[in-house]
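note to self: dont lose this again. the chain is below, predicted strucutre after it. 113 aa total, dont forget to put it in the shared folder this time
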Amino acid sequence: MSVKQWITCVLLCLTAAGSAGAVRVHRVSSNGLADVRVYVTDSAGQADCIIFVEDTAGLADGNALWYFEQSKGLADVNVYFATNAGLADKKIFFTTSKGLAKCEVDWVAFKKK
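---
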């Protein structure tokens, strides 16, 4: 591979990586329709993820920033909010501060094919 081809390849890869945007979450009312089940805790210390909800999907980047999508077809993941922590895959805490949001969970990986 020539240097020119290598540079072109690197630039294309960097461009394609871009920003992932907010995780587009569709809230489902049934456990059976969900890709992932979450439980909302009262304490950030008990949560697997601290989530900030964006008003616009394009303003966010990363797994800790959610945008609630009305359309199931446009969502990255379908989420069921469990009433019991023992029935949930992950525990989350909603924050009102974008700077405190953090999450290592790849929500899109839960998507059923």
